[in-house]
Amino acid sequence: MSRWLRNNRGFLVFLLVFGLFRTAVADWNPIPSGSMRPTVLEGDVVLVNRLAYDLKLPLTHVILHRTGEPLRGDIVTFSSPKDGTRLIKRLIGLPGDTVEMRDERLIINGQAARYQPLERLTEAVADNVALPALRLRESGALPPHRVQWLSGVNARSDFGPIVIPAGQYLMLGDNRDDSADSRYFGLVPRELLIGRAVGVIASADITANWMPRWSRFASGFH
């Protein structure tokens, strides 16, 4: 064993450094579900800046130093406060914000978001199940981005008002009627934030034999 370690120490050091890099500096995150449609698609692999908010002790949630502040509208990866699953959602509510939703429409600190319809289409939500969908541009209370509403889904389209406590954040999926988010698992403590997603590295259509989506390679979020 000692001889094997001597002969492979360079490779082992590389693995150690690479592991520390992924757990402390930057990471990539495959997307398994459609909760962030139309911004992030199933089969996308997104690049995550782990130093956007905090420097953490590798492999832990222990914050060593704050490097930046989360911003309303950021696309964030985090550990679910319910079961620790890694999730990706949009940050909607900051500490001190008052957030509510009325008939799908957000109100943040008394300012109602504006909604501009973009397109109507049919979205597959399960095997042999497709529903009418409306895609809109949400702006005003948040930086402009696209969201999707589905017809015929019993989702939580009303809540609040909620005052976000210190050190907590409210997360929603852009696919508002098909997303398990803060409406279901509650607010997310800062120590569970992993990083800010900054763009798509690569993408494959998991519903069509994993064919590459070349137009999404090395792309930003639109």
TrEMBL record:
It comes from the Bacteria. Its EC number is 3.4.21.89. It is a single-pass type II membrane protein. Keywords: Hydrolase, Protease. Coiled coil: none annotated. It catalyses: Cleavage of hydrophobic, N-terminal signal or leader sequences from secreted and periplasmic proteins. Belongs to the peptidase S26 family. This is Signal peptidase I. The gene is lepB.
